[in-house]
Structure formats: structure tokens, C-alpha cells
Fold this sequence. Notes:
Elements: E1 19-23, H1 27-38, E2 42-46, H2 52-70, E3 81-83, H3 87-91, E4 96-99, H4 105-118, E5 125-127, H5 134-137, E6 147-151, E7 161-166, H6 172-184, E8 188-191, H7 201-217, H8 223-231, H9 234-238, H10 243-249, H11 255-263, H12 281-295, H13 300-317
Parallel strand pairs: 1-2, 1-4, 2-3, 4-5, 5-6, 7-8
Antiparallel strand pairs: 6-7
Helix pairs in contact: 1-2, 2-13, 10-11
Bound molecules: 1,4-dihydronicotinamide adenine dinucleotide and the ligand C[N+](C)(C)CC(=O)CC(=O)[O-].
1,4-dihydronicotinamide adenine dinucleotide binds next to helix 1 and helix 4.
Amino acid sequence: MHSSETTASGTTSPEDVRRVACVGAGVIGGGWAAHFLARGYDVTAWDPAPDAGPKLRRLVDAAWPALTSLGLAEGASTDRLTVTDTLEQAVADAQFVQESAPEKLDLKRDLLARLDAATPPGVVIASSTSGYPMTDMQTAAADPSRLVVGHPFNPPYLIPLVEVVGGERTDAAAVAWASRFYEVAGKSVITMDHEVPGFIANRLQEALWREALHMVASGEATVRDIDLSITEGPGLRWAVMGPMLTFALAGGEGGMAHMLDHFGPSLKSPWTRLEAPELDKELYDAVVAGCDEAADGRSIADLVAERDRGVIDVLRATGRLNREGDSR
Ligand SMILES: NC(=O)C1=CN([C@@H]2O[C@H](COP(=O)(O)OP(=O)(O)OC[C@H]3O[C@@H](n4cnc5c(N)ncnc54)[C@H](O)[C@@H]3O)[C@@H](O)[C@H]2O)C=CC1
Ligand SMILES: C[N+](C)(C)CC(=O)CC(=O)[O-]
């Protein structure tokens, strides 16, 4: 990544950031707002939906018990959230901007250009996009050098990972600044030095998701089978070790070398050769109905609380919480 445009390295050092703007305040923008508030930042937020303010406050309030149990930064308060009437007000004094608007390429392009025009020069602007390359999103911005991807995981206030990458016209200094800022803000960061389709974690997740949808569509597995197969199986190991080290242990004392000698040839076996399935009405309805059945009367709010408690237990059990309020 290189650029002939203005160098974007942030006017404030990552350690000195106090004010963050969250633009788009749905599931992810709201989750980011909760995370930054819990870390003691002042947060301004803007979202064009008429009910955005109350919705965002409900989301932050729902996350706050989990965040309180993890330990809040000194001075952290939901009172430090300001919902503004305009995008320009939200970013006027921001030292970092996190964009979390709907996953539509044209919308992201226009919004990032608008954010670039309204945000103080040099301030880094990150997009939460789940998969668009920044090269495709930064085309309309006057200063694309400060635009990066900062891809979070739901909920951003509990799942540590953020994937950071720039586009062809992003300044490498902006990528480095964003990575350092996220670390200071308590996240675990993977920084990519060039664009990778689907980033890293989403590419892996999408492969799994594609297979899951195929199995539901073909009647090979129910929605419940799919979920159990992960929560009672590999998912337990993945919270502790990733797929590489997990499979190294499949080789016993011979480790990964023996695993590859033994099971490498089965990579060629026809377990899967599938393209993404058509998301037709039948599959759509089957997945939605299967999830309703699996929820077994629990509301989305119940499930969010249950997930948050479970993730905190896993973080604690796997030693990711060194002390109260320190998730890294
Ligand atoms: N939901 C998820 O699990 C994850 C989503 N993401 C990414 O985060 C971004 C946001 O996704 P969600 O929060 O799930 O969507 P969402 O639908 O929950 O929220 C999107 C919000 O953006 C607002 N919005 C609509 N037009 C806008 C505009 N022009 N400017 C600013 N805000 C606008 C909507 O009113 C809504 O509140 C997407 O890029 C998505 O790919 C990333 C990681 C996980
Ligand atoms: C479903 N999703 C593609 C939007 C998921 C993500 O992007 C990351 C996550 O939270 O798993």
C-alpha cells in the first residue's frame, strides 16, 4: 500500500485518543460504542434511522452488565455517549472514526467520501465492512490515504479480534496507526500488509457457513445438528487453539508432520467441492425456522445475554482476562 496523497498517520497518537465517533449504530456500531465507552472514551454517534438514539442506548445498556462484570476503565460511563443529529457533528472533534453502516458497496463509497470531507485532516477512518476491499470503497474520497478496514467480530465489546488492512491508496502509516489504536483500546489485532479476499477469519467462517447451508438445503443436517456439531465438537477446541495447532495434535507425538502424512491424502477425498448454494425461499425459511426452534422461546435479548455470559466465561477460563478490566 502506498499513496501520493496527504500522509494519514493520525494527528493524535493512538495512546492519546479520547474521542471516538461511531457512524452507523446498529448491531456493530452499537457494539463498538459500548466497547469504547467501557474503555473510558467519549463517544459521539450518528445514524440516520429515526429511532437510532433510543435503539443505540438500549444496545449499550444491554451490553453494560457484561462490560461491568469484566471491569470498566476508570471514568467509563454511558453518560459519555452523545448521539448527534448530523454526521458532521459526530466527527467534528473525533480523533478516530469507526464506520459501521450497512454492507452495500455504493453506500460505503459515498459515506466514506462524506466522512473524509467532514473529519479533521489526518484522523484515521476505519470501516467495519465484513468483506469489501478498501480499494473498492475508497474510490470517491478526496483523501483515501487515511481509510482503513477495521473488521470486528460480534459483539465488538467482547470478541477481541479486529482485522486491519488498507487499500491500494491507503497510507501504510494509517494502517499502523489503526492497529496500534485498537491495541490500546483493548483489542487483539491482525494486521494484513495487503488485501486478502474475505480477510482471514471471515474467509474461514464463510467456508464453514457455505457447507452448513448446503447441508440444511439438502436435508443432510438440521440447523440444530449444525450448531451442536460445533459447540459440542471443534468449537470447544477452537476457543483454546486454532485449527492449525488443533490438527497438529491429531498427529500424536509426530505432530503436524505425522498428521499431514496420515491425513493429507484425504484432502483429495470428495467431502466437499461445493459452490455457494442458492439462498432460495425454501432454504431461507428452513434456516429461519430452524433457528426459531433452536431458540426454544428465548428472545434475541435473552440469547444476547446468554452469549455474553458464555463468552466471558470462556475468556476467563482460557486466561484471556488477566485481571478485572484487562482483557488482554
Ligand atoms: N452483524 C455482524 O455480525 C457484523 C457486521 N459487520 C459489518 O458492520 C457493518 C454494519 O453491520 P450491522 O451493524 O450488522 O448492520 P445493522 O443493520 O445492524 O446496522 C446498520 C446501521 O447503519 C445505519 N445506516 C443506514 N444507512 C446509513 C448511512 N448512510 N450512514 C450511516 N449509517 C447508516 C442503519 O440505520 C443501521 O442502524 C457492515 O459493514 C457489516 O458488514 C462486521 C462484523 C460483524
Ligand atoms: C455474518 N458476518 C459475515 C457479518 C460476520 C462477520 O463479519 C464477523 C463475525 O462477527 O463473525
